[in-house]
Design brief:
heterodimer, A: about 200 residues, alpha+beta, 60s Ribosomal Protein L30, Chain: A, five-stranded mixed β-sheet, 3 helices, B: about 120 residues, alpha/beta, Rossmann fold, five-stranded parallel β-sheet, 5 helices, binds magnesium ion
C-alpha cells in the first residue's frame, strides 16, 4: 500500500495493491485498480467508518457451496480482516453496506478467465447475501480493468473503466504476482496454539 | 444423558456456518451466537432447560461483547468447559490476553477444517 499525504484531492490517499486491505474512520481516499481481482468497499455510514480490501479467490471451477469451499478462504479472510478493524473502531457488521468492483475476465491469465471471474462473482454475491450486508453498487465481470476511488467515511465511490489497460501497467504486474501467490498457497492455514 | 451443545460465537454468519459445517459429523447440537453477550444469554437458556455446554468456539472481534470479555465472564461461573478462540488476531499480546482470561486454545483463521475437528475432539468430553 502506498500512502500519499498531499494528494490532489486535498485528503490523504491510500493506494491499495492486490492483496492489501485498509480500514479507517479518518477522512481520506482509498484507491486501487481491480483487474481479475475484486475490490470490496465496506462502510458504516452512521459511524463514518470504512475499509477496502483487494483480493481474489482461486476458483477455477464453479462449486455449489462456494462459501464452504476451501478456495473461498482468501476472500473470507480478507473480508474478516476488514470487519475486525471496523469492529475495533466501534462499527457493527449489521450496519455495513458494500460496493463491489472487478472480477473481470480477459485472456492473459494462466487460468480460464471466465470461470475465475464467475467463481469470484458468485463468491461475492453469496458472501454478502449470507452476511445480510446490502450491495449498494457493483460493477463486476466483463473484459475491463476498473480504477476505483473510495471515500471510506461516507462510502462514496468514483469508478472508471480502463480500456486497453491504460494507466495500469504497474498494477498488472502486481496483480499477476499476487494471483500466482494465492494459487500457490492453497494449503496455508492459521496456527493452532493450545494453552 | 444430558444434551451437550457446542457454542459457536462469531459475528459472521459465514464463519458460524462453516464451523457448523465442519463439526456436524461429531454429532453435537451446535448453538450459534452473534457476539459474546448473545452467547452468554444462549448458554443461560441451555442451562435453564437442564442441558449443558460441551465447549465454546469464540471469535475475538465482535460488537457488543468481544471474545476476550466473553471468556472472562464465562469463567466466573465455569472453570472447566473448554473454550477455543477462533480469530484473525495472531499478535502475541492478544494471545496472552486470551490465555490469561482462561481460554483453552487459540486458532488463527483461516482454520484448517481437520485441525479444528481434531482440536474439538481432543478437548471435548
Ligand atoms: Mg469477528
Amino acid at each position: 500500500m502506498l500512502r500519499k499525504e498531499n494528494s490532489k484531492y486535498g485528503v490523504p490517499m491510500y493506494m491499495l495493491h492486490p492483496g492489501d486491505y485498509y480500514v479507517t474512520d479518518q477522512k481520506c481516499l482509498m484507491g486501487s485498480i481491480a483487474g481479475i481481482t475484486a475490490v470490496v468497499c465496506l462502510y458504516d455510514p452512521g459511524r463514518r467508518i470504512g475499509g477496502m480490501g483487494h483480493f481474489i479467490i482461486p476458483g477455477t471451477q464453479g462449486t455449489e457451496d462456494i462459501l464452504f469451499d476451501d478456495i473461498s478462504k482468501e476472500g473470507i479472510l480478507k473480508i474478516e480482516y476488514i470487519m475486525g478493524e471496523i469492529v475495533k473502531l466501534g462499527g457493527d457488521r449489521k450496519d455495513l453496506k458494500a460496493k463491489l468492483f472487478g472480477a473481470g475476465s480477459y485472456p492473459g491469465t494462466d487460468n480460464n478467465p471466465l470461470t475465475l471471474s464467475r467463481s469470484n462473482i458468485t463468491f461475492l454475491h453469496d458472501y454478502f447475501r449470507n452476511e445480510g450486508i446490502p450491495i449498494i453498487k457493483e460493477s463486476l465481470g466483463g473484459r475491463h480493468r476498473r480504477k476505483v476511488l473510495f471515500s471510506p467515511v461516507d462510502g462514496k465511490v468514483f469508478m472508471k473503466l480502463l480500456e486497453n489497460n491504460m494507466d495500469a501497467s504497474k498494477f498488472i504486474e502486481l496483480e499477476k504476482q499476487y494471483v500466482d501467490q494465492v494459487f500457490r498457497s492453497g494449503d496455508t492455514y492459521g496456527d493452532v496454539i493450545m494453552f | 444423558m444430558k444434551v451437550k451443545h457446542i457454542m459457536v460465537i462469531d459475528d459472521s454468519n459465514t464463519i458460524r456456518m462453516s464451523v457448523q459445517h465442519t463439526l456436524k459429523e461429531l454429532g453435537y447440537p451446535i448453538t450459534p451466537a452473534e457476539n459474546g453477550f448473545d452467547g452468554l444469554n444462549k448458554i443461560q437458556d441451555i442451562c435453564s432447560k437442564g442441558e449443558d455446554v460441551a465447549m465454546c468456539i469464540v471469535d475475538v472481534n465482535m460488537p457488543e461483547m468481544d471474545g476476550i470479555s466473553f471468556v472472562k465472564e464465562f469463567r466466573k461461573t465455569d472453570q472447566f468447559t473448554p473454550v477455543i478462540i477462533l480469530t484473525t488476531e495472531s499478535g502475541s499480546a492478544k494471545i496472552e490476553e486470551g490465555k490469561n482470561a482462561g481460554a483453552s486454545g487459540w486458532l488463527v483463521k483461516p482454520f484448517e477444517p481437520s485441525a479444528l475437528k481434531t482440536t474439538v475432539q481432543r478437548l471435548i468430553r
